[in-house]
Amino acid sequence: MPCSVPVLLLAFNRPEKTIKVLEQIRKAAPVKVYAHCDGPRGHVPDDIPKTAEVKRLIQEQLGHLGVKTLFREKNIGLRQGIFGAINWFFEQEEYGIILEDDCVPDISAFQFCEELLLRYRDDPQIMHIGCSNLAEEYTQNRSDDYLFSRFSFIWGWATWRRAWQAMTINLDGLETFERNGGLKRFVSDYKSQAYMRAKFEATRTGKNNTWDYAWFYSILKNNGLCIVPRINLVQNIGVGEADATNTTASNQNARKQAQPMNFPISHPAERVVDPKLEQLFFYYSQKSRFQLRLWYLLHVIGLR
């Protein structure tokens, strides 16, 4: 069955990775499909042919689906590029699935998002549906097929216009959020809190040229909940690669294979956030225990 939910593809200059995501979108055959591609960077000559090839592949692979495109002539960067693309998407759609060019979903991820987008369509507390789960070894034997978390995993995800309207790219109200113990409600470990505080501050000032921590913050600020599948539904094939924009560090766990979800979905009876799982999600997606201790010593205590 064709996917009845709109899909947005976010791409740039990696045609060899983009084609793998495009193949999965073709299989899902969404009723509506959108694609954004940032323009070439002026100081990187190779961007010109690579971005041109990505745009060609998008038209070739998705043209029969009537793809709507937002192709930039000049590069506006990761932060403003993706923020603007998702704004553009939700100007036209009420909800949808969002895939970056290195996030290859199992085909079941489309149905997973479709069912939950409709189920929680009018529920303001649920703000994000993630498709990745790097800690699946701790959750794969659960009886329910998904759980609730405060972590907004973005390697294949879905949301609603009503949730995205709460997005603050400049992290408005960050001081008040911290003063009211917002991070303490998130993770209990003080080193983890310090790390997230640093990430939020770097994102607000623009030192961290990304959008995902702003979305993370926006959900926490609004006491929202995210959905995490019991198993990992998306493989990130870009982590640790030289052409990655942000995730250049080698992390084999982050390249975890995608698994198929069985249907019908088993839904949780209660909205319970497990603090132990939250801490594990932090270690798997942000910093491992060892890396966090080292970061804390260098950046907070100031040992050199």
Architecture overview:
The chain contains 11 helices and 10 strands. The protein has helices at residues 15-28, 47-62, 78-92, 108-119, 161-164, 174-179, 182-186, 190-205, 212-221, 275-285, 289-301, and strands spanning 7-11, 33-37, 68-71, 95-100, 103-105, 126-130, 146-149, 157-160, 225-229, 234-236. It has an 8-stranded mixed β-sheet with strand order 3-2-1-4-8-6-9-7, sandwiched between helices. A two-stranded antiparallel ribbon has the order 5-10. It is globular, with a radius of gyration of 19 Å.
Which ranges are low-confidence, i.e. pLDDT below 50, for 5 or more consecutive residues? none
Tell me the total number of β-strands. 10
- Could you tell me the strand content as a percent range? 5-15%
Helix and strand string, N-terminal first? EHEHEHEEHEEEHHHHHEEHH
Helix/strand-derived category reads: alpha/beta
Provide a compact summary of the structure:
The chain has 304 residues and is of the alpha/beta class.
List keywords for this structure.
304 residues; 11 helices; 10 strands
Describe the protein's topology.
Blueprint: E1 7-11, H1 15-28, E2 33-37, H2 47-62, E3 68-71, H3 78-92, E4 95-100, E5 103-105, H4 108-119, E6 126-130, E7 146-149, E8 157-160, H5 161-164, H6 174-179, H7 182-186, H8 190-205, H9 212-221, E9 225-229, E10 234-236, H10 275-285, H11 289-301
Parallel strand pairs: 1-2, 1-4, 2-3, 6-9
Antiparallel strand pairs: 4-8, 5-10, 6-8, 7-9
